[in-house]
Write a structure and sequence with these properties.
Blueprint (H helix, E strand, L loop, with lengths): L6 H17 L37 H14 L3 H9 L2 H4 L4 H17 L3 H14 L7 H4 L4 H13 L15
Amino acid sequence: MKKLFKPASVTSLVMVCAVLLGCETPPKQAPAPKPVVKAKEAPPPAPPPAPVEPAVPVVSPDVQALKDGTALYDGGDYNGAIKKLSGAGDIWNGHNKDVQISALKIMAFSYCVTSRTQLCRQQFDKALKLDPSFSLSAAEIGHPVWGPVFLKSKNAVKAPAPVKKKDSTAVSK
């Protein structure tokens, strides 16, 4: 058999192949798969706005005292209504005649339904003194308890006070 290659040339050839293999770039790997990204979801809908509380009107102390006294009256606590309204300095120290007249009216009704007609009449007298045009509704005037008391008070305001005449027969010295 014939030697095709010399040992030195085989060694040279192996070295050249090794060098060339060292220069060879490694085969490209398939790129790593990208992580699966879900399609962007729409952001959750914004929560509905909180319900707006209706603005609470600021109630003056005299009006609040009148409301409190009226609530007692409406609940059947007539003595409580009288006590609340008569002791409410905010009503009587204020300058709101309408509130004062309304308080006097509720107090008059309370006195009348508790059989204290003289005190009932006094409240109507005070209301008429504050406002001579003060009146009750037709239904209130028709009430069997306070209607007649109010009419007496109203008629007393309308009637002029009797004028005292000097006695012409008296002898002056």
